[in-house]
Design a protein that fits this description.
It is a single chain. The chain is mainly beta and about 120 residues long. The protein contains 2 helices and 6 strands, in the order αβββαβββ. The protein is about 10% helix and about 45% strand. It has a 5-stranded mixed beta barrel.
Amino acid sequence: MSAPRAIAHHSFAAEFDADKPFKLTGVVTKVEWQNPHTYFYIDVTDPATNKVTNWALEMGSPNGLMNQGWTRNTLKVGDVVTVDGSLARSGRPLGNAKSVILNSTGQRLFAASSAGQ
């Protein structure tokens, strides 16, 4: 017998710091449309060093995102996006997205963030 895999769910404040906002622009490398949180990943290039860092960005659940106008195909690998959100407390390249701008169209979508809950 094996134990079922538990899906970790956390409060916003346990993992992210609302007092540490960020704005990142990068290229989408992966999208994980799943419960309880959708994640997407972007490569961000530091203009000073040209170092590329892959950031993991958490959004709300698929249902919450659909209520904000998202579909499973809104973000695609290769899209350039600008993301506003809050940094992880751990200092890792991880953030909770508040909004996402699709740079090709200028469309801004809210990320069904768990901030403030």
